[in-house]
Amino acid sequence: RAVVVSAAQVDLGWSDQSVNELGFAIERSSDGGQSYALLDTVGANIAAYSDRTVRPGNTYYYRVSAYNPGASSDPTYLGSPVSTPFVNLPAAPANLTASVLAKGGISLAWTDRSNNEDAFLVERQLGTTWQVLANLSANTTKYTDNTTAPRTLYTYRVRALNAAGYSAYSNPVLIKSK
To answer: Are 11 and 42 in contact (CB under 8 A)?
Structure first.
């Protein structure tokens, strides 16, 4: 069986009919079952797998084969094709502001304009290099950067993400630490 759990996950399950397998090869097709590619393998006596590499709005076919050093079984097709739901990209955060805290650090705040984000990524630029500072849960609208160096100029930006991908960035803010 193949069951869609979310736009980013399909759970697979099958009956282990083998007595001498070393494991199972799991294959996936995204071209209507015309061709299959190896997705992953699992060990002997395991009869379930979660495919977390699916993309929203796509249809997938799955099959599983038992294998051992001598050969592989004929593939078993796991039910009907499954389609992951289409998911819109989240809206970009807005109104990013920054302020220097009295005891050091920089406080950030923004407006969450999305209703379908899974997380927010806070990024900081020093010179020409951007780095992700934090991966925050959905509906978060504040973050404090306590890793700043004294009297250093930083640029910050925030973006949302979900199973469909990343939003555009918020407005960038430039601020000098204490």
So the answer is: no
